[in-house]
Design a protein that fits this description.
alpha+beta
Length: about 425
């Protein structure tokens, strides 16, 4: 995962109190190479934007966010985990007015935006925040009607369930009332209750990222087929680094089940760091796409070793070595093509984690008796699923490469080869005509 602290955002460079707030992507070539969807993270000061960014994408402990300073300039994070999980997160300080064209080129920013997340502090007076949200949403929609608008009702960890529902209902009605007053009833908003102290922020970001994945319908269908033919209760396709699930089957998502799956990933990664074998690192090199392709080439079924986990009954896990990834100081190096884990729960179910590629893991829950009877069938179906993911991955890379080539060809002068007996190429003259 590549993290960048500075931001390039539009065609101008502005300042706010002497603080730089943006630099430009000035060449068309940059636009051709940068095809990742962009997520804007906005909201008032102290609403929790930086804390969300650090917890989800930098693996910072929620307690450590108490010491974060207020963001003074726009920050950009580039997420390059796999072919499916590729996007940018642009965090805007609360003091930056996105509607002030003298300070920032909002038209350029909104035109290149795919999702806009507005953070509302649920423990503060949110009347002014709703007014700002309305203005930003209307302006962004006028520039780019294809933007997905997400409202995170944040810091709900200190509220009881009834109060959470009451606040969400109040914000929902007031937000749509403000849009209707401006004749903007065609704008759709999505609302999520979030907190960095539980897994709600990861689930909310999962829903945002899923809307940016063109292959989502294919992945969900593949998961549903896998679940149906294997007797599985629930399955998630996780991005291991961020714990965002990029797809799940057709069954409804239960928050408790999702939290268990996230905790299982943490267990596997933490134990993998303890028992890692650095000799494997020498065989792994290159960028994320080549890594994914290399991991797909392995077809060796994983085996399991037995271990005990506190709070879980009779857990078993296999952890082998892989490439080292820096995730806020945590060593996820031993998560590789043979990583696997089976944890037995006290309710008679088992949780199973299987590596799909270096960044993706399939986590599913199945009845213990079913798994004992159908383990070979489940393993076979998993390898079929894994091969299907490989085909989707390769098709995605080919489509992206084709698009880049088409965009690049528009910038190149036209040239044609000479006769077969001559290896030279005809070069266009300065006027653009072929000699």
């Amino acid at each position: 995962m590549t993290m960048n602290g500075s931001l390039m955002c539009g065609d101008i460079e502005g300042s706010l109190g002497g603080v730089p707030i943006g630099e430009a992507y000035t060449s068309r070539q940059d636009e051709v190479q940068d095809l990742k969807p962009r997520i804007l993270l906005t909201g008032r000061q102290r609403s929790g934007k930086t804390a969300i960014n650090r917890v989800v994408f930098h693996k910072m402990s929620p307690n450590e966010t108490l010491f974060l300073q207020s963001t003074s300039k726009i920050q950009k994070d580039s997420i390059n985990h796999s072919s499916f999980v590729r996007f940018e997160v642009w965090e805007f300080p609360g003091q930056v007015d996105l509607l002030d064209t003298s300070v920032i080129d909002s038209n350029t920013i909104f035109s290149q935006c795919h999702a806009l997340i507005y953070i509302i502090d649920s423990q503060d007076d949110y009347a002014d925040s709703l007014d700002i949200m309305r203005a930003i949403v209307i302006r962004a929609y006028s520039v780019n009607p294809n933007i997905n608008f997400e409202i995170f009702i944040h810091k709900v960890d200190g509220l009881n369930d009834d109060h959470k529902i009451e606040i969400q209902r109040d914000i929902y009605h007031r937000a749509y009332d403000k849009l209707n007053q401006d004749d903007q009833s065609n704008i759709t908003l999505s609302f999520s209750l979030t907190s960095i102290y539980d897994h709600s922020i990861f689930e909310a970001f999962s829903k945002v990222v899923q809307k940016l994945i063109p292959q989502l319908a294919t992945l969900e269908q593949m998961l549903s087929i896998f679940v149906e033919n294997s007797g599985i209760d629930k399955a998630f396709l996780f991005d291991v680094v961020s714990k965002i699930y990029i797809a799940t089957d057709a069954a409804a998502v239960d928050m408790q089940t999702y939290e268990l799956c996230c905790d299982m990933i943490d267990v596997v990664i933490d134990l993998s760091g303890i028992y890692s074998n650095d000799s494997v690192l020498e065989d792994l090199g290159g960028d994320s796409e080549s890594m994914n392709s290399a991991m797909f080439d392995s077809a060796t079924p994983p085996t399991n070793n037995v271990a005990d986990f506190g709070g879980l009954a009779n857990g078993s896990a296999l952890t082998q070595a892989g490439e080292k990834m820096a995730n806020g100081g945590r060593d996820a190096g031993s998560y590789d093509n043979q990583s696997s884990s089976v944890i037995k729960l006290t309710n008679g179910s088992v949780m199973v984690l299987k590596e799909v590629n270096k960044y993706l893991a399939l986590v599913f829950i199945i009845r213990d008796d079913h798994y004992n009877q159908r383990a070979p069938l489940v393993d076979y179906n998993f390898f079929c699923f894994r091969n299907g993911i490989q085909k989707v991955f390769r098709a995605t890379n080919q489509a992206a490469q084709k698009k880049r080539n088409q965009e690049s060809s528009k910038q190149l002068p036209r040239s044609v080869p000479a006769s077969p007996n001559n290896n030279k190429f005809l070069v266009p003259d300065p006027n653009g005509y072929i000699n």
